[in-house]
Amino acid sequence: GGGGAAHRLCPHDPVSPPHVHMSPCAPPQVRPGACRAVATSAARRDIDTAAKFIGAGAATVGVAGSGAGIGTVFGSLIIGYARNPSLKQQLFSYAILGFALSEAMGLFCLMVAFLILFAM
């Protein structure tokens, strides 16, 4: 046979070739706090993910303000046009300016939300 004491195989490892010298099976050496470190890192990752979603949601709330601002701008345009139809072109240009500024604020809020989600 070819199975001396120097060539003893680990009983849990049936695929080891017979010419490799292996000591009897011993439990792997693990740091004392390794399991706790893995659990802590998993918990920290979960907390970070939750914080990202909460932050992105809070940043997205500003989009609702932008929508309300746009509604106010065009509502005021209609009221102004009803009061003085001869100023239609001037009122409309001011309304477009107000719309652009309100929409820009909403887009900034959305941009911050995406930065929180994907860049942090």
Automatic annotation (TrEMBL):
GO terms for molecular function: lipid binding; proton transmembrane transporter activity. It comes from the Eukaryota. Keywords: CF(0), Hydrogen ion transport, Ion transport, Lipid-binding, Membrane, Methylation, Mitochondrion, Transmembrane, Transmembrane helix, Transport. Residues 54-116 form the V-ATPase proteolipid subunit C-like domain. PROSITE patterns: ATPASE_C (PS00605). The chain crosses the membrane at residues 53-79, 91-118. Pfam families: ATP-synt_C. One of its GO terms (cellular component) is proton-transporting ATP synthase complex. InterPro entries: ATP_synth_F0_csu (IPR000454), ATP_synth_F0_csu_DDCD_BS (IPR020537), ATP_synth_F0_csu_sf (IPR038662), ATPase_proteolipid_c-like_dom (IPR002379), F/V-ATP_Csub_sf (IPR035921). One of its GO terms (biological process) is proton motive force-driven ATP synthesis. It is a multi-pass membrane protein. Gene3D superfamilies: F1F0 ATP synthase subunit C. It is found in: Mitochondrion membrane. Belongs to the ATPase C chain family. This is ATP synthase lipid-binding protein.
